[in-house]
Specification:
Elements lengths: L14 E5 L2 E4 L7 H14 L16 E5 L3 E5 L2 E5 L1 E2 L4 E2 L5 H13 L9 E7 L5 E4 L11 E7 L2 E5 L9 E5 L4 E4 L8 E3 L14 E7 L6
Length: 219
């Protein structure tokens, strides 16, 4: 008999419930990391990372770009999804198959079948970059979840409820972690604390987060 037979499953592949409709799939994307990063770098080569302006007059510390039929855009007029990259005036690069496949599999694992994301927002954090507490509410189809994939340096992710004043929980997201939130948690407030200094073996001095979204209503 194997001495380790009675040990619980390896925590790196655990499914952790964060809130109703929200789960953390530990390490779910780790095996695909090299392919995912290659695909992301190819997108960035066509649609460069940039620091967008917010409607409030700030410049985001996180650098962003997108792939898919729609991309997320912020400027002094507001937040929205657009079919063209305002920086290049070209359509956003297509969503690479390996990204789409992973997002759909993670959504299904979390209980959301038939996830059809048309947008993947790519966020790059260097040490010090952060994302204030916010809701993802620019999407017309709130029945679809958000799928979030973390690569590179770890970060402290804040995840609350749809009520702003509720104190969020804190989770350390590491390379390969995937978070899926929908249902009762679809409009949960979330954010990222300032990234700590570090160097990741594959990505170097940065964290990349991919969020897959479904801005359109599906019939
Ligand atoms: C986001 O809220 O768009 C990104 C979250 C993250 O970077 O983990
Ligand atoms: Fe968000």
């Amino acid at each position: 008999m194997d001495l380790f037979d009675d040990l619980p499953p390896h925590p790196d592949s655990a499914l952790l419930a964060l809130a109703p409709g929200a789960v953390l799939l530990r390490g779910w994307a780790r095996d695909a990391d090299v392919a995912l990063l290659q695909a992301v770098e190819a997108v960035i080569a066509q649609a460069p990372l940039r620091h967008m302006q917010t409607p409030g007059g700030y410049t985001m510390s996180v650098a962003t770009t997108s792939c898919g039929a729609l991309g997320w855009v912020s400027d002094p007029h507001g937040y929205r999804y657009a079919a063209r990259d305002p920086h290049t005036d070209q359509p956003w690069p297509a969503m690479p198959d390996c990204l789409l496949t992973l997002a759909q599999a993670a959504a299904a694992e979390a209980g959301y079948a038939n996830f059809q994301p048309e947008a993947c927002l790519i966020n790059q954090y260097v040490p010090g970059a952060k994302l204030s507490l916010h809701q993802d509410k620019d999407e017309k189809d709130l029945s679809a979840p958000i799928v979030s994939v973390s690569l590179g340096l770890s970060a402290v992710f804040l995840f609350g409820t749809p009520v702003r004043k509720d104190r969020p929980q804190r989770y350390r997201l590491v390379h390969g972690d995937v978070v899926v939130w929908g249902g009762q948690s679809r409009l949960a407030y979330h954010g990222v604390q300032p990234l700590e200094e570090g160097v990741h073996a594959l990505l170097g001095r940065r964290r990349i987060n991919l969020t897959f979204r479904s801005p359109r209503v599906h019939g």
